[in-house]
Amino acid sequence: MKQLVLAEKPSVARDIARVMGATRKADGFIEGNQYVVTWALGHLVTLADPDAYDEKYKQWRLEDLPMLPTKMKLVVIGQTKKQFYTVQKLMARNDVGSLVIATDAGREGELVARWIMEKAHWKKPTYRLWISSQTDRAIKEGFANLKPAKQYDNLYASAQSRAEADWLVGLNVTRALTCRFNASLSAGRVQTPTLAMIVDRENEIRAFVPKDYYTLQALFPGFTATFRDGKNNTRFSDKAFVEDIAKSLQKQKAVVTALEKTPKQTPPPAAYDLTELQRDANKLYGYSAKQTLSYMQSLYEFHKVLTYPRTDSRYITDDIVPTIPERLRAAAQGPFQKAAMALARSPIQTKYIVNNAKVTDHHAIIPTEQPADFRKMSHEERMIYELVIKRFLAVLSKPFVYDEVKLTVTIGGKNFYAKGKIVRDAGWKAYYAQGFDEEEEDVEIKTQQLPPLKNGETLELRGTKIVSGKTRPPARYTEATLLTAMEHPGKQIDDRKLKAVIETTSGLGTPATRADIIEKLFDNFSIERVGKEIHPTAKGKQLIDIVPNDLKSATLTAQWEQQLQAISQGKADSKRFIGEMRDYATSLVGQVIASNAQYRHDNITRERCPICGKYMLEVNGKKGKMLVCQDRECGYRKGLSTVTNARCPDCHKKLELRGEGTKRCSAASAATAKSSAISKNAVNRPAPANTT
Predict the structure, then answer these.
(1) Range list for CATH 3.40.50.140 in the chain
(2) How far apart are CA 317 and CA 304, in angstroms?
(3) Highest mean pLDDT pick, 314-318, 579-583, 653-657
(4) Maximum CA pair distance of the chain?
(5) Sequence ranges of the chain with CATH classification 1.10.290.10
(6) Fewer CB atoms inside 10 Å of the end CB: C or N, the chain?
(7) Is the pLDDT reported for residue 219 higher than 90?
(8) How far is it, in rounded angstroms, from Cα 472 to Cα 424?
(9) Judging by beta carbons within 10 Å of its beta carbon (0-12, 13-18, 19+), is residue 13 exposed, middle or buried?
(10) What top-level class would CATH report for the domain 2-145?
(11) If residue 516 lies in a helix (H) or strand (E), which one and from where to where?
C-alpha cells in the first residue's frame, strides 16, 4: 500500500517528492513506488458563506440577523476546486492505505489539512509530519519520526473553534454595520482593534499642543555638558530662567566634581521571529509586512536557505545546537565568510539563542544547512537573507562590552552633566555598522566621546548655549511600529491576567496573518499611506466611533486565546466555546441595531456610478486615487491616478499616472516630457519676480 502525502503548497510537495523518491509527475500530484505526494493551494476548503444555509442571506437585511447556523458547513473553494477533486480521488484510491499531513506545522496548517480530509470523507490511518525547514535532512528526519495525527486533534479543535468564532462575530457585525449605516463597513476581532490603535494615535496627535522648552549647555574642549536642576529637569519652559543661569556662569570656575566609570555590557539581540524581521525590513528598506513575508517564503520554499518563516519564537531548542556549525558554514559567503567561519571554528555560544521554554510550534528564523546561491536570488530576497544571517551571527557572539562614563562639572554651584562610552569589546555589534544602540535614558544628555578627564580637574569654559525646542506629539504608526503594537497590544487591556495572556501568545493576529490584516485595512479604505506613515481615513475614524466597544480592544482576542489555548491542551470544550460565541454575536448585532450613531460619507463626489447610478466616493488606494461606488453590492471601481516609481527631476517626488487605458499612457508621457522640459529650461530661465 502507498502513503498519500498532503503538503500545503506545490513547491513543498515537489521537495518532499524528490527527497522521498516520488518522480512520476501527474496532474496535481507526484507518484513513486511508496509515496503519492499531492498538495493544497493554501485552503482548498473553507466555511460556507451565509447563503449556503438559507437563500434569504443572499440579501443583506437587518431583520435576518444574527446568522447562527446550527452546524457550520464546509465548501470547496471555487478557484481551487480542481485541485481539491484531485486530492479527493487520490484519497479514494484502493492502493492508498494511509495519509501523512505535511501542511505547515501550526494551528492554521492543521486546519488546512483537516478540512480537506473532512470534506473528502477520509477515514484511513493518518500521521503528522512536523518540521521547521525544507532541507533534505529535515524532510528525511521528519518522515523517520512521524506522529499519529490523533496527537494533534486538540490543535485542530482549537483551529476550528477560532475559524467558526471569527465567522460568527465578523460576518454578523459586518452585515449589521453595513445595513444599519448604509455604507460598506467591515469589522472583526483583529482588524478593528488594530484600526482603533491607529485612530487613537491620530486623536492624540490632533489634541496635542506643543510647548516651547529650553535647555542650557556648557561648552568645553572636546565635549558639551547639559544643565540639570535639583529635580533632575533638563528642559525648562521659562527662557528668562535659563538666560539668568547662563549669565551667572560668566567668569566662574568649572571643576569636575564627579567622574564615574562603570563597566557594562549589552547582550546580543534575540534571533528573528517573523514580526521582528518585518519590522527591521520596513525600517531599513521600506518593505511592507506582506512583501517581507513573500520574500521569506521564497527563501524558505524555493531557495531552502532559511527556516520556517511564520514563527513567533526568537529562540531555538537544544536539539538544534549540534547543527549550528554546519549552518554557519552554509552562511559563510560574501560579506559574512570570515565571521561565520570564525564562529564555526570556535566554541559555540548558545546562551542567547537556546531557550526550550520559549519555543512554541516553530523555533526562530535561522539559516539552514544549505548554502545560498546569490545568483538565483532577487535583490530583495538577498537583503532579507543577509538580515537573518547578520542576526544569526550576532546572537552567537559575545556581548558588547564597554565602560560607561558619567561626568558632573560644577560651575558656580550649578551642575552640568555629560556621559560617554569607552568600548572594550565590540562583540556582536561588530556586525552592525550602526543601529541597535540602547535607548538614551535622557534625550537631552546624549552619549558622546569624552576626552581623558580626572576628578577635581579644572576645565576651560568656552561658552554656553541655549537650545530651544518644542515638545513633540507621539509619532504616527509606520508598518514597522504598527507590527510592534499588534504584537504587544497590552496597553488596550486593563485586566492583568488577560494582559499576560496576550503578551505570552501572539498578540493581535499571528506573525502569519498580521500583514494581511494591515493590507485589508488599506483595501477597505479605513487607512492610507502618507509616505511611510499610516493615517486613518474619515471612514476609519467614523467606523471606530460606531462599532461596538468590545471589538475596539485587544481584550476580546486575549479572552479567545485563553480559551483556545485551553482547547488545544485538552483542558476546555470547543462546543461550549462556540455556544458562547453564538450568544456573543447576537449581543453585538443587537448593539449595532440599537445604536443612535450616524455615518456620513464626506468623500462623496458628483460623479455617478455607471452601473447603479449612485454617487461615487473618492478614496486613496494603496497605489493611487480611485472612485468606488458607495453601494457595497455594486462594487464598481474606477482608477483616477497611480503613483509610479518615476520621480520628478525637480522635487524628486514620485510622479502620478492619471486617466485610464491609452489616455493614461499618453497623459503619463506628456507629464514626464513636460517635467523634463521644465527641468532643462529652468537653468537658463530667470526666476519670476514674484512666485506664489
Answers:
(1) 2-145
(2) 20
(3) 579-583
(4) 100
(5) 274-395
(6) C
(7) yes
(8) 36
(9) buried
(10) alpha beta
(11) helix 514-523
Cell of 250: 560668566
Model confidence band, residue 66 (pLDDT cutoffs 50, 70, 90): very high
What is the mean predicted confidence (pLDDT) over 239-261?
94
pTM: 0.76
* Identity at 604, one-letter amino acid code: I
**Can you tell me the distance from the alpha carbon of 364 to that of 274, in angstroms, rounded to the nearest whole number?**
8
Is the domain defined by 274-395 classed in CATH 1.10.290.10? yes
Residues 91, 99 contacting (CB under 8 angstroms): yes
C-alpha grid cell, residue 292: 517581507
Mean pLDDT of 297-316: 91
Residue 640 is classified by DSSP as -
Active site members: 308
For 499, the enclosing helix (H) or strand (E) is helix 496-504
| Start-end of CATH 1.10.460.10 domains in the chain | 169-206+476-594
Residue positions counted in the chain: 692
Looking up cell 547582550 gives 267
3-state secondary structure of 18: helix
Distance of alpha carbon 469 from alpha carbon 226, whole angstroms = 15
Residue 537: closest CA among 185, 174, 172: 185
What homologous superfamily is domain 169-206+476-594 in, according to CATH?
A: Topoisomerase I, domain 2 (1.10.460.10)
**Cα 118 → chain centroid:** 32
Name residue, grid cell 461606488: 629
Residues 326-358 as b or e (16 or more Cβ within 10 Å = b): ebbbbbbbeebeebbeebbeeeebbebbbbeeb
Q: Which long-range contacts (CB under 8 A, 24 or more apart) does 481-484 make?
A: 481/279, 482/194, 482/197, 482/198, 482/518, 482/534, 483/275, 483/278, 483/279, 483/282, 483/289, 483/514, 483/518, 484/275, 484/279
